[in-house]
């Protein structure tokens, strides 16, 4: 075989093609010549830094008046590049100087980020430094596979070198072939995969799937659809895994139904003793083509974890397409998939989360001006979401190369999500394509080098993009369009704080439930058992003896069994408050799910603890994530895990007693009207004051089988909404149809209100269920209920929109309060506990 046969062969270009090539070449040269462009690739948002605090060594140690520049200074978490700050590692003038970090175990590496020193001296010294990843310490790791070379030598440059899942325990940086000083101001080693956005929708669930062939044995036919049936069980005998024959380049494909923006793809491997290694090298591809079964679509990642039962999370960072294909290239193999989840780009912002950007100082690369006035940066943080250019509430730059916009939050903040409203008139929505959201503490190059939390892919007029940052910390939020000349227009930018407001009156599901942990620490105060974190005592002083505590474990964990599958709103964690050890909880992950495999560490994640102050109380939003077990784990390092109280709050809340129902009798509309022998199920039947959920009574609204069916009520004026209560139909048919319905509140009727802010999602699909969704004062004139992402019937037997505030004093004039419910008919969460009853069946 010709050793160069893998190089793509291209036809000889014609004159027009050559001109186009030259134009692109000159443009690229111009871009690369500018300052501020970082080398390499975009790291996956939320990816774990495997190197932070790990043991590091180097070829020698430089010392001056600032002290010893030891290797560990490059993994101390400080990106400051000024030599006088004393946070950079530095060798002597060595021949082929090297630096090495021990990750503690074999890891799959996505990228390595290297921060160069930023003072006037010596940035060019790092030229040609190689990044190597592998399991050998022979010659200090210099013989391990190479994943890239640093070429950017500008002072303060940040080089991001893609390793694409290269595996190894050691990461070595070496300057080959010459005598040099090696200075590193920070090295971050990012894990392959990413943290999926909490609450993100699984686009693949129940969708049509095909594969290259079907394997069959005594358990039955392992058809492609078994990988999207919602069951993560990986035991072959359970019959929930897809499986092909021994095919050459076997493939599996799911049709999402329409073009979607994909955040991540999660793949569950089989977990019995046989065959986990077969999935090695499987590629994830996303695109709009079915040519060659989708194998030519863009690739978003490769599976490298072949352990039995492994769960691989592959970041796609908004890659768009209708089809997701998994293929094992280059060999004959069986392809087995026990579950595939395709997560939508974006996330559900925590209800009631504070907008940190509102009214804060903002700047941008230039200011556009026309007859409507100057489109200054501050217009994007004025609290107005109107996207019509003529209203004068959008910021706008000139046609700049890599235009940018920046807001100063005033202090270092933990950011949950950034929401960006695009302009909604006919002109120019597509300009925002590829805009990056960056969060950090540096204003160097206007913040363009700060960590990235996501990219905008939705360019529809009036689109609202919600980009998850998962607690990324920083003082400045920058939006930049990289790599081209463009105008940057922003009609509103909201920066939401990490954490959320727990629903008032929500029930603590964890109190007194059985809890376990990886080990038990013991001293003179006694045994710090797991149960102490669910004893109802929030005291954070160690000497009081009410905190759980593990030994110094690798990836320590704590778990509580809620007794049954529950819908979780938030998890609240109280840190210890004495002088010692608050920082130990940094990076602890909250997982919720039904599996105890690996102590629940593979269950879906709903958030990460970033606040390490003594006595801190971290409120992590789970937005209705369901499961029986809640696990807290510190990944990727050896640590003590101390928890002074853990509260797991149920989804839903108690509305203020006697609060006014703003929706009663108000005008309502819906996407279509279903009609049968009982009459027309018009939208107004959901606000007629009757909570009867029996279809035959004729008091429920009902749409046809619509794509993304919606229902909307006009409150008449802008209102502050405390909660929305939705009564599901209670006969035997169809309660599950309401699954995933979103409640949105706002002032816009664009797209029937589907782009307004979300205050929650319905997860209880039991017949006759009453879901109380907290909106925590979210304001707007319109309340929309919509089932996103699928074709469905939307049936609502009553919708109550509860005003924020309280009941007027007795005898005062005003509207009558909402009738009280019969508490004997409800469970602890305000959800009706009635059995299903007979009635007219609707078409499925």
Topology readout:
Layout: H1 15-33, E1 56-58, E2 63-64, E3 67-68, E4 89-90, E5 94-95, E6 98-115, E7 130-134, E8 146-149, E9 158-174, E10 179-180, E11 183-184, E12 186-191, E13 209-211, E14 216-217, E15 220-221, E16 242-243, E17 247-248, E18 251-268, E19 283-287, E20 299-302, E21 311-327, E22 332-333, E23 336-337, E24 339-344, E25 362-364, E26 369-370, E27 373-374, E28 395-396, E29 400-401, E30 404-421, E31 436-440, E32 452-455, E33 464-480, E34 485-486, E35 489-490, E36 492-497, E37 515-517, E38 521-523, E39 526-528, E40 548-549, E41 553-554, E42 557-574, E43 589-593, E44 605-608, E45 617-633, E46 638-639, E47 642-643, E48 645-650, E49 668-670, E50 675-676, E51 679-680, E52 701-702, E53 706-707, E54 710-727, E55 742-746, E56 758-761, E57 770-786, E58 791-792, E59 795-796, E60 798-803
Antiparallel strand pairs: 1-6, 2-3, 4-11, 5-10, 6-9, 6-12, 7-8, 7-9, 13-18, 14-15, 16-23, 17-22, 18-21, 18-24, 19-20, 19-21, 25-30, 26-27, 28-35, 29-34, 30-33, 30-36, 31-32, 31-33, 37-42, 38-39, 40-47, 41-46, 42-45, 42-48, 43-44, 43-45, 49-54, 50-51, 52-59, 53-58, 54-57, 54-60, 55-56, 55-57
Which CATH class of the largest domain is shown?
A: Mainly Beta
CATH architecture of the largest domain: Sandwich
At the third CATH level, what is the topology name of the largest domain?
Jelly Rolls
The helix fraction, in percent, is under 10%
How many strands in all? 60
Characterization of this structure:
A hairpin with a 2-residue loop joins strand 14 and strand 15 (220-221). The chain is mainly β. The longest helix has 19 residues, at 15-33. It folds into 5 domains: 56-191, Jelly Rolls; 209-344, Galactose-binding domain-like (Jelly Rolls, Sandwich); 362-497, Sandwich (Jelly Rolls), CATH 2.60.120; 515-650, Jelly Rolls; 668-807 and 819-825, Galactose-binding domain-like (Jelly Rolls), CATH 2.60.120. Strands 1, 6, 7, 8, 9 and 12 form a 6-stranded antiparallel sheet that branches. The chain is globular.
